[in-house]
Amino acid sequence: MKVAILGSGQVGRVLGSAFLKEGHLVMLGTRDVNKAEVKEWLLQNPGSSAGSFADCARFGEIIVLAVSGDIAAQVISSAGISNFDGKPVIDPTNPIDHTRPPVNGVLPFFTSGEESLMERLQKMLPGAKLVKAFNSVGSAYMYKPDFGGEKPTMFICGNDEAAKSTVKEILDSFGWETEDMGKAEAARPIESLCVLWCLPGFIRGQWAHAFRLLKK
Ligand SMILES: NC(=O)c1ccc[n+]([C@@H]2O[C@H](COP(=O)([O-])OP(=O)(O)OC[C@H]3O[C@@H](n4cnc5c(N)ncnc54)[C@H](OP(=O)(O)O)[C@@H]3O)[C@@H](O)[C@H]2O)c1
For ligand 1, is residue 51 a contact (CB within 6 Å)? Predict the structure, then answer.
């Protein structure tokens, strides 16, 4: 598949390399293709390319929204709304309010419990098929996570069943077990998992973990 990664931060670069390792074609979308991190990533990932957000979104058969939650709508607008039409969009964003510090390790969100960021973005992109994934684990564990043989669980949701199947196949290849939690509204609790995941990090410096759902 042709995979468009919007954003050249930690998540964009980790997922870009992961898709490339799995045999996909990857373009990294960025405001500045001449940024040192982008140039270095291109050197370390031969066969990949970089372009503007719009070039990247046009290129992708599947799009990953690897940008800060507070400017995700801005990035979507500059990428061109019609470039998302009909495509699965993987959404790892979190609605973290960067204007306020964590309170006893609890990150503040700019959304309420009644609306997730993914629902907002899905409304902005009615022709796209958003799937929440990769938001509640650190970038170091997104690809082939090694927890001593136990597969962690990635909670996903979205309104389009085919898009979720595509994301599940990707997660299988990346070494994850997938739990489909239903439609877009389920992004509310899934986005909250990011707060829980970060808590041990903020209060005792522990960042090496992932969630697993135990079932009978
Ligand atoms: N870091 C993690 O471990 C982790 C884990 C799970 C989920 N997430 C979520 O994944 C998303 C990406 O996180 P991240 O840590 O990779 O990076 P980030 O620092 O949140 O930003 C990623 C990219 O967003 C773009 N960006 C930033 N400000 C912008 C602006 N004003 N206008 C346009 N683009 C802008 C930049 O791309 P360019 O500089 O290339 O233009 C930047 O590299 C976030 O929503 C985060 O909450 C992160």
Answer: no
